[in-house]
Amino acid sequence: MNHSKSTVILQMVAGLAIIALCGSASAQDGLRERWLDPPPEFRLNRNLHNPQMKSTQQAAIIRETLDEGWGGFALNAPFRHYLTDEGMTATRQFCQLAKAQEMELWLYDEEGYPSGSAGGRVIRENPDWEAMGLFFTDDVVPAGPVTFPMPPGQVVTIVAFQVNNGETDFNHSIDLSNRFNRGQLKWNAPEGTWRIFAATQHSVYEGFQADRNPYRHPSPMVPEATDAFLRITHAKYAEFLGNDLGRYFTATFTDEPSSMAMPFHAYSKRHAVIPWHSVLSAAIQARYGYAPETKLIELFYDRGAAGQKVRYQYFKTVGDLIAANYFGRIGDWCHSHKLGSGGHLLLEESMVAHAALYGNIMQCFRQMDAPGIDILSCYPSNLPVHSPKLASSAAELMGHDRVMSEPCPVADKPHEPPTEAIRGFFNLLLQGGVTDFNCYLKLEHANQSERAEINTYVGRAAMLLRGGHTAADIGVVYPIESLWTEYRPRYHKVAGWQHVVGSPESVNEIDRSFRRASRCLFEHRWEYLHLDSQALIDSQPQDGRFVHDPFRFRVIVLPAVSTLPADAWANLSAFAKQGGKLVFLEARPRNSEADFPDQAVQDEFAQLIDENPNVVFLEEWTFETLNELLESWLDRPLKIADEHLPVRLAHRQIDGREVFFLVNDSAADVTTTVTFHTAAQLEEWDPATAYVHPVSRETQVVLQPWHAKIYRTMRPRE
Questions:
Q1: At what angle do helices 305-322 and 278-288 cross, to 10 degrees?
Q2: What is the pLDDT of residues 539-570, one digit of tens each?
Q3: 206-210 contacts: CB < 8 A, separation 24 or more?
Q4: How many CB atoms lie within 10 A of CB 608?
Q5: Angle (deg, nearest 10), helices 623-633 and 505-523
Q6: N or C terminus: which one in the chain shows less Cβ crowding within 10 Å?
Q7: What does the pLDDT read at residue 270?
């Protein structure tokens, strides 16, 4: 396939690479030809929502895209002709033209976003499927006539509690529900001070993400809504392109479906909101024997055992329903039509948002063949490194090898970052496990040949990094269950593309600890995977290793983890007793899924911390103290002469070979000596020049600003 004239020039310049490869053990299966001109499946894709209707216009955009070195498109039927026969015929024609050029295609699944509404068609079938929330507010009022700002929607409860000496007496309440009429609460409060608490059920639309378009959003907890969405949208593509959609598309691209229960900037009513639907209420009733509407006081106020248990059960059920009834059903449909399910979710960066929007984001990622993230700033320094790791960890735990990112530099307006900084941005996403890119990024500062060069650079790196698995000695626990127990509904609001405000400090501490642990390992070049509680349960302690095939973890880091299922605690205890290493940061084990607190869990780990040198509790910690502890336990994948240099690492095992991806995370040249922890011979692969040459295990590494190189053992392990 002829990508561009610039690719031909790069091939000529890379003649030395061919010479180096011809005598090398790595020159097999046409690898050298693919390395010089990486196939479209490894290159960047463009997002295209309104493909032209005429074949001549379609051919022109395909040619322009190829000349700039892009690999393909994420596309949908033109929004102007959404799901019409005319629009679908044009889409089929475009797909056929693109596939004739061997381009990569992803099926974007929505008119506008968030995904799930099909341009309003789903809710028109049944308005009861709309995404809903429980809205809360409370206030302290004196005796006398009360004016109380009620949340919107249908009243669930309005009660007043007496306040004595600043303390609320929750054991004695006055039901005020009958005092609410025509949107107003009219009450003449008796002598004393009173706390009024009100809860309502209402749609999460005005002031939430969904109101950025005119379409009401269905709840992802409602299976019938997902089925309708698939029938309206996905099935239409199968009708026009055939049931084997994998002939055309790598995967679907779902775009930010969620419970919607997180206010955006425009929401100013100062009500607390959590996801709700009658489906959720029925599920909690069936599982736990109570309707959640009867436990709102515990959920909202109680920081003790009763409140922690209710919140755990509430958000666990949210996660189970969204994972099964939205992502699971889409995945099943895709598999029956021979393509993967993929896309990205909303606010992947914030654990606070995970609880409200998904219950458990890793549980949702697990249902996708190509889970993904978006990144709204393309400056390397702005990348939240835990975000791509969450998606790639979920993929690897499920045995998948595709992870998607949607670079979308809206936070960088009015201009995109410089092209070389964008190279550094892609390096960090590749380092975090991303394999595929569907871009709103336009590379606006680059000309045609420079765009082709960046595309070829990313394609080369992605080609050598895809497949296999992360060579991680360390697992970092995703502490979502601990966050659930502390997540008392408050006035949360999205305050930036990766930031939510309004949480109790105990929630912020958990989120912050998780981010810091991930960042610490990233900066100190320790390879790791995020482990959710399901991974902890599925793993087997064996001879001092925490085994989750193909992984053999030697250290488990638990940032602010107080709560896990009992089976997860049991596996961690057995691992420690066999010589495995546990590091508790800021919190000690306290709860299981059944007992809040769980005294047996507390006693078991208190003894381990006191008596087992392999089990460490760090109530206060710095990057240096954690790094020093890890150095006392583990050999580094590689050593750098100056450990303070901004060099980042991805370490993978692919087809029996060790692969090291070294990234210069700075705008300055880096030259240093690196010693790789391997006895095998290595080759240096430079994705910028295509030059490949053998190196010793101790070698000088030269990295230009924002550049990376790949070091790969020459032969597979026998």
A1: 120
A2: 999 999 999 999 999 999 999 999 999 999 99
A3: 206/267, 207/263, 207/264, 207/266, 207/267, 207/268, 207/269, 208/260, 208/261, 208/262, 208/263, 208/264, 208/267, 209/114, 209/256, 209/258, 209/260, 209/262, 209/264, 209/346, 210/114, 210/117, 210/131, 210/260
A4: 20
A5: 50
A6: C
A7: 82
